Amino acid sequence: MSPAVHPASPRTVRVQAPGKINVSLRVGPPRDDGYHSVASIYLAVSLYEEVAATSVPGGGITVSMKPADPQHFGSGPTGGQEQEANVPLDAGNLAVRAAAALQDAAQVGDGAHLELVKRVPVAGGMGGGSADAAAALVACNALWDCGLEAESLSRIAAGIGADVPFALLGGAAVGLGIGERLTPAPATGLFHWVLVPTPAGLSTPRVYAELDRIRAEAGADVVEPAADANVLRALESGDPATLAEVLNNDLEPAALALAPPLAGILAQGRRHGALAALVSGSGPTVAFLGSGAEDAVRLAHSLTRNGLEAFAVHGPAGGASILPGA
Ligand code: ATP
């Protein structure tokens, strides 16, 4: 008797990729292509997006979303349906675009279904969509046995969005150009943060446009940005009090102009003992720096008791990586 032939069961690869805080974001003048040159210092934090990629022989790329576990963002007042409604579940999804770009680059015949677990606040200034794209690249690279090295994946990532290469790399890094030209930055130990998301997201292009408007009104002389050496030294020192002194974000005044209630949230965190408070990237997520792990948990609890959604994380966290199990 000949052995039974079983059709190959679909394979699944699960990958996580981190959200980020910009511990420094220096923004230059707008470029001819509409983007701004930046000198960003990224810090990956322990709030992860997850992508499970399942092979679809001969098929295209599809995407769905699975609710996040209750202890993470995505299920509180800022989460659930309101967040999900803002994530396209078609070819416009950044994870789908990333998988399709890899399929093209590596001339892959098979397709994939991508299931996303979103924990990073949508349009929150923490690069959640970029993390999905990075996770999809790593997952599909393994799923389809493409064998692309980090450098090739990073090149494809940069074609998807400025923050995608950093979500692949993780850790701490300087990002020049529009943020995609990365140099790892040494950091000592872990920095502990409390994140406060806001239900209504802010559109990144709108925040940059508002910064241009504020600068034009003030007649500001805008120069090409360079990485902030004080922030790099503070990361290397491992001392949160030193980092608290030098954190900066050129986009913060623009985010505050578009979302005035953020000023009250920043003040609330400072009152409750945060070493420093800043808007993350283009906002509206706010990040508070704590003096240590226990301090951050205590701060998160007191902000929660005062009616805010607040969540302790730490960084640097690792870049996109394959999770065990199928
Ligand atoms: P940035 O990297 O510009 O700081 P952000 O963190 O503020 O981005 P994201 O959550 O990454 O914001 O997404 C911004 C927009 O991109 C969303 O409003 C949504 O319409 C679109 N988008 C496309 N794909 C995704 C995805 N997988 N997850 C979230 N948003 C996505």
Q: Could you give a short description of this structure?
A:
With 326 residues, the chain is α+β, with helices and mostly antiparallel strands. The chain has eleven helices and twelve strands. It is globular.
Describe the structure.
- The protein is an alpha+beta fold and 326 residues long.
- It folds into two domains: 12-185, 2-Layer Sandwich (Ribosomal Protein S5, domain 2), CATH 3.30.230; 191-315, Alpha-Beta Plaits (2-Layer Sandwich).
- The protein is built from eleven helices and twelve strands.
- Strands 1, 2, 3, 4, 5, 6, 8 and 12 form an eight-stranded mixed sheet that branches. A four-stranded antiparallel sheet has the order 9-10-7-11, sandwiched between helices.
- A hairpin with a 5-residue loop joins strand 1 (12-30) and strand 2 (36-56).
- Helix 2 (94-105) runs parallel beside helix 3, helix 6 packs across helix 9 and helix 7 runs antiparallel to helix 8 (240-246).
- The chain is globular and about 60 Å long.
- The structure holds adenosine-5'-triphosphate (ATP).
- Adenosine-5'-triphosphate binds at residues 86-88, 92-95, 122-130, 132, 163, 201, 204, 281-282.
Which architecture name of the largest domain does CATH use? 2-Layer Sandwich
- Say which molecules are bound, naming each kind only once: adenosine-5'-triphosphate
Q: In DSSP terms, counting alpha (H) and pi (I) runs of 4 or more, how many helices?
A: 11
Strand content: 25-35%
Major beta sheet summary: 8 strands, mixed
Structural class: alpha+beta
Helix proportion range: 25-40%
How many discrete domains?
Answer: 2
Poorly predicted segments: 1-6
